[in-house]
Design brief:
Helix content is about 20%, strand content about 35%. By secondary structure, the chain is an alpha+beta fold. It has a five-stranded mixed beta barrel. A two-stranded antiparallel ribbon has the order 4-5.
């Protein structure tokens, strides 16, 4: 195999295959709180899909204490429907998460919208 052949394979991977793998890895997004469910929230992502349609709601996002209660204009405010939030996606599944105790993983799922956490409120 020549150096040119090796570069062709790397170029194929980088330009054609890698983007498909990265589509499945979620890191963070911005969204609007659609509904509060106690210690979780349903969030409507604000970035539109490439066809202009809304993305599906991300349900049951854990909400951090910092997001649940924040300061705005010098006043303590509670998270509410319509707030713009930053949502992160955990490295591994949190199906068995239940507070501060160690927990076992339920799957090999990684960076999934099923493992979302509202990290904070974006004050606009």
């Amino acid at each position: 195999m020549t150096a040119r052949d090796k570069n062709d394979v790397l170029t194929l991977i980088k330009n054609n295959l890698l983007p498909y793998f990265l589509l499945a890895a979620n890191c963070m997004t911005v969204g609007t709180v659609a509904k509060l469910n106690g210690s979780t929230a349903d969030v409507q992502p604000t970035p539109l899909q490439s066809d202009g349609d809304k993305r599906p709601i991300i349900g049951n996002c854990l909400v951090t204490q910092q997001a649940a209660e924040y300061r705005k204009d010098g006043k303590d405010v509670h998270l509410k429907k319509g707030d713009v939030v930053l949502v992160g996606f955990l490295d591994r599944d949190m199906d068995n998460f239940n507070g501060p105790r160690p927990f076992s993983l339920a799957s090999r799922r990684m960076h999934s919208v099923n493992d979302a956490v509202v990290i904070g409120v974006i004050l606009a």
